[in-house]
Every structure is written in C-alpha cells, then in structure tokens.
Amino acid sequence: MASDTFYTFVGDGAPEASDDPIEHDQVRYPARIAVYDDPTVTPRVVVIQPTNIRDYLEHITATTTQLSHEQGGTIPFMIIREIVENYIHAAFIAPTVSILDAGNTIRFSDQGPGIEDKEKALEYGTTSATEEMKRYIRGVGSGLPLAQQYMLDKGGSLTIRDNLSCGTVVTISTRSEDDASMPIAPMKHEKGQDDHEAAKNDVPRPNEALLELEVAERGRQALAYLADHDSVGPSDLVAVYKGSQPTWSRELKALEEKGLLVKRGQKRHLTELGKAYIKLSH
User: Fold this and answer.
1) Which of 74, 129, 187, 205 is the most exposed place for a label (fewest CB within 10 A)?
2) Which one, of 252, 251, 23, lies nearest residue 136 by Cα?
3) What phi-psi label fits residue 275: left (phi over 0), alpha (psi between -120 and 50 degrees) or beta?
4) For residues 261 and 269, is the Cβ–Cβ distance under 8 A?
C-alpha cells in the first residue's frame, strides 16, 4: 500500500524548514513491537527501522494490526492508526507497541515530552499539532477522542498514563477500564486437568498484597462510601464526612493512582482492584 493512499487527507508538499527544536521531519529511532504470545514468557519483538515519516507510520500501523489480529484481536486498523499517528507529537522518540491479551489490548508508549493535560487531550478540537506536523497528520484534535469513543462504544476502553521517566503510554483494549486495570489472564490450563480444579484456577484470586497498600483514613472513608454507592465525588464526601472539597479531591486522586478508583466524567468509581480491596479489608 502506498503511503499517499494511506494518508489520503495529507498534502504532498515537503515540509518547510522549522525553528522547532524537535525535528518532526525525520525519524531517528526504530519502533519496537512486542508480541506477548504468552504473558508468562519473554515477548517476541519486531523492529521497524527508521524511514520517511509516512512509510514509518504506515509500517507501524500495518504491522501492529497484522500481529494483533494473528493473536485473535479485533481492534481495527483505522483505530490503531489514530494512536500511532500521535508518535509525531513525541518526535518519534523510542516508540514501543505491546500486544497483549490475545491481541485485544494494545499499549503504545514513547519517551517524548508527554501529555500534561490528559483529560483535555481526549476532547475533540484540542491539539498541539504544529503546521509542520500537519504535513503528516490531520492535526485537528480528533484522533484520541475518536479512538476513545470507538472503544467505549464497543465496551472497551482507552487510557492515557505517564511513562516511567518521561513520555506517554496510551492503552486501547476491548476490555472495560475496570477490567483492563486487572492483570491479563494467564493461558488456559492443559487438556486432561480436572475440570473442577481448572475452573477454580481460572477464577482470579484476591491478592493479599492489596492489604499492604497504604490507604489513609480519609481514603478508607471514601472506599466505605463506595461500598454502598455506585460513584463518588468530593461534594458527596463533604456532605457525609465534612472536610473540604480540595482535601477530598486529593484523596480521591490518590486512590485513583493506587488503581482502586477510576474517574468517569466528574465522578469516581471502584475498579475491580478497589472492590477486591474492600472485600479483603472487611
């Protein structure tokens, strides 16, 4: 497939010189695609060597789609492309794709400048694309919101997190955000194993290490509230436990960072990890 066909909405003109210190008109880093055929063993890695931008983005997208679908994944080419295009914002620094969960969870990471306001990045029309970048992408702030809407409509999820030292990690999954926060299930048992034992082993066991999580008193109060309610916001906790909204906002964010809560809109909800924590602590 020709790159011009792949990016039919992009003009053919060569990019003009830019004063931008990050060079978006060339690719200097190889992209690595890690395929986790079995979550208990080392992944096989496919390396995409640097080339011109259009062919580079096309190659990453096509290879990721092929490898994820070979595993049984169903995330379409067009949605994968929307995420791959965002590597241009990271100046193509150390792009890595991880294919997990039989191809149904795909994680895209980089070591670029990162995304400061992640919620705003998921709003239509919000973009940091420069005129130079728009030689290669639409640059109208539609990619991430469109991909998120598609995944949500299919019962899945899209999340944006900071990478370890710098950069961004975007994960798309056919699993909901609550389910995606739990570890990927291991491979199924071998034939011949007792069916009753196999079924018992396939059920996720509560992780006793959860009890070692440091949760402040206010955090435990917030979790106690959620044991009886579907969602919570700072104002709900102020009404029940007093205190100030900023204090409760910080506490809810801390619980979210521990993986116990997830934010949807203006409210927080328990993740599967949060439900397990409540069950273990009572």
Assistant:
1) 205
2) 23
3) alpha
4) yes
If you ran DSSP here, which 8-state letter would residue 42 be given?
P
Distance between start and end Cα atoms, the chain: 58
Q: DSSP character for 21?
A: S
pLDDT tens-digit profile of 249-258? Answer: 889 988 888 8
Separation CA 204–CA 273 (nearest Å): 11
Domain positions in the chain: 3-176, 206-280
Strand partners, 98: 34, 107
Measured in whole angstroms, how far is the alpha carbon of residue 276 from the centre of its chain?
22
Query: pLDDT tens-digit profile of 50-104?
Result: 988 888 889 999 999 999 999 999 999 999 998 888 887 667 788 899 999 999 9
If one looks up domain 206-280 in CATH, what number appears?
1.10.10.10
Q: For the domain with range 3-176, which CATH number is right: 3.30.565.60, 3.90.1150.10, 3.40.50.300, 3.30.70.2860?
A: 3.30.565.60
Q: Determine the Cα–Cα distance for residues 262 and 273; give it in Å rounded to an integer.
A: 10
